[in-house]
């Protein structure tokens, strides 16, 4: 058995994939450490694209990356399986048995030893236990859920066309996910029309429900106001201060007793850590279930367990649950690890607010430059949309390297030229 230092990264999303890639490419390639990535899925996806997969405006088969392929190129190992347990004394993690689609067991439960465990298992929308939400709403927190939504959406659009009726969709959550999904559904319909699928935009009724006084509460007020104006110009109904208290098969019930009828209901509100953080029973958690970490990104009670991205909560200085923060943390920590295994201290992580952008389909985009980035300022239109895409291209650069990232960008352009611009099957 190898006596090399063993890094185990659990969760290959934005933070975990960048972390495993860097560690594999440096310490793994040079034989200084063994790096293993675990994920419950076989594919890495850029989560901020999920609303586009859900609307069918971006093909998910071209925009997902096989963990096995990435592992073989970047000198780390990949094990498929969900985290099922952690033994901090023995320093092992357990992976749940892997089953095929029929439920037959392909791989029994496995235990993997670690010297350092990096937890980056992300988050989910939070239904706060509101009755009817789990049973009647679609979520779009992973590829399977986005695909499931898309299948429903396409069937219901076809039905509406066949019956010359309208289609009601209601989305709860006026954050970036809900806002972007609402605009993207309209875009999907516009694109479908150009292929002869004649559903009038007026027959698509999308309602966006937000409990707070304005949509996009994490953005400056001007961005909220402009985005709302744009959504309403598209025909989307926006209700703010709308507290959802329940859901049933036909729609949502609001706090004032009124109802919003909808055939397709989406829950895109709140953030809570992935449930597997509860397996770390003797570590500290935030109210949203995230693992509490120090500025070194080490968990407050265990120096060998790190947490990054949406599933972590930096004590005293929390950072937003965004792709940008996840990337910054992965970049910071991955560069510290070589020194740390040689006995050096880890420099504290400092979040740099580089602004935030919300993309409203092809119709517009709004956002801000960060407080410390060129002095800050608003972005709109094309520059905002480019800013949105830029974050994804930077991520590709980190995990692919410049040549393959450029090739991937070129392949995307060719793909757009060749394929229908919306999913039609
Ligand atoms: C529709 C949508 C749109 C968004 N748009 C934006 C945006 O425009 N800008 C922005 O900054 N942010 C956006 N976000 C938020 C952003 O995607 C997240 O903040 C970011 O993905 C967090 O990265 P992460 O690495 O912490 O987790 P993730 O990227 O979520 O990765 C978590 C990984 O852990 C794996 N995993 C989960 N549980 C287990 C388990 N038990 N065992 C093993 N593996 C597990 C998952 O399969 C996944 O690969 C959006 C989110 C959504 C849902």
From TrEMBL:
<keyword id="KW-0285">Flavoprotein</keyword>
<dbReference type="Pfam" id="PF07992">
    <property type="entry name" value="Pyr_redox_2"/>
</dbReference>
<dbReference type="GO" id="GO:0019646">
    <property type="term" value="P:aerobic electron transport chain"/>
</dbReference>
<dbReference type="InterPro" id="IPR023753">
    <property type="entry name" value="FAD/NAD-binding_dom"/>
</dbReference>
<keyword id="KW-0274">FAD</keyword>
<protein>
    <submittedName>
        <fullName>NAD(P)/FAD-dependent oxidoreductase</fullName>
    </submittedName>
</protein>
<feature type="domain" description="FAD/NAD(P)-binding">
    <location>
        <begin position="6"/>
        <end position="330"/>
    </location>
</feature>
<comment type="similarity">
    <text>Belongs to the NADH dehydrogenase family.</text>
</comment>
<dbReference type="InterPro" id="IPR036188">
    <property type="entry name" value="FAD/NAD-bd_sf"/>
</dbReference>
<dbReference type="InterPro" id="IPR051169">
    <property type="entry name" value="NADH-Q_oxidoreductase"/>
</dbReference>
<dbReference type="GO" id="GO:0003955">
    <property type="term" value="F:NAD(P)H dehydrogenase (quinone) activity"/>
</dbReference>
<keyword id="KW-0560">Oxidoreductase</keyword>
């Amino acid at each position: 058995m190898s006596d090399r230092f063993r890094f185990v990264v659990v969760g290959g999303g934005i933070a975990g994939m960048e972390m495993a890639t860097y560690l594999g490419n440096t310490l793994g390639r040079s034989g200084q450490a063994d790096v293993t990535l675990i994920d419950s899925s076989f594919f890495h996806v850029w989560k901020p694209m999920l609303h586009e997969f859900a609307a069918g405006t971006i093909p998910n088969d071209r925009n997902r990356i096989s963990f096995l392929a990435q592992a073989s190129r970047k000198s780390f190992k990949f094990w498929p399986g969900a985290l099922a347990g952690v033994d901090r004394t023995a320093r092992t993690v357990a992976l749940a048995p892997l089953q095929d689609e029929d439920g037959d067991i392909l791989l029994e439960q496995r235990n993997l030893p670690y010297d350092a465990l990096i937890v980056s298992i992300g988050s989910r929308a939070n239904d706060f236990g509101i009755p009817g939400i789990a049973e009647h709403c679609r979520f779009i927190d992973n590829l399977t859920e986005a695909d499931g939504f898309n299948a429903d959406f396409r069937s219901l659009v076809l039905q509406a066309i066949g019956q010359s009726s309208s289609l009601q969709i209601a989305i709860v959550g006026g954050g970036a996910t809900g806002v972007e999904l609402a605009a993207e559904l309209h875009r999907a319909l516009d694109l479908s029309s150009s292929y002869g699928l004649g559903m009038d935009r007026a027959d698509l009724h999308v309602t966006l429900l937000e409990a707070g006084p304005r949509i996009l509460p994490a953005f400056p007020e001007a961005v909220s106001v402009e985005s709302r104006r744009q959504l309403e110009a598209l025909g989307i109904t926006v209700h703010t201060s709308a507290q959802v208290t329940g859901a049933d098969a036909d729609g949502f019930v609001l706090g004032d007793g009124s109802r919003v009828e909808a055939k397709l209901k989406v829950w895109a509100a709140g953030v809570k850590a992935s449930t597997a953080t509860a397996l770390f029973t003797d570590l500290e958690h935030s109210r949203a279930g995230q693992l509490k970490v120090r500025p070194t990104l080490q968990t407050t009670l265990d120096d060998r367990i790190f947490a990054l991205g949406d599933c972590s909560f930096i004590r005293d200085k929390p950072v937003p649950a965004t792709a940008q923060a996840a990337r910054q943390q992965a970049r910071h920590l991955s560069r510290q690890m070589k020194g740390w295994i040689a006995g050096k201290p880890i420099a504290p992580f400092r979040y740099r607010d580089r602004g935030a952008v919300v993309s409203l389909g092809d119709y517009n985009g709004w956002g801000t430059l960060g407080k410390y980035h060129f002095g800050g300022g608003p972005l709109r239109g094309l520059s905002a949309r480019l800013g949105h895409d830029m974050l994804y291209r930077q991520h590709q650069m980190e995990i692919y390297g410049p040549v393959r990232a450029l090739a991937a960008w070129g392949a995307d352009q060719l793909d757009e030229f060749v394929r229908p611009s919306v999913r039609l099957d």
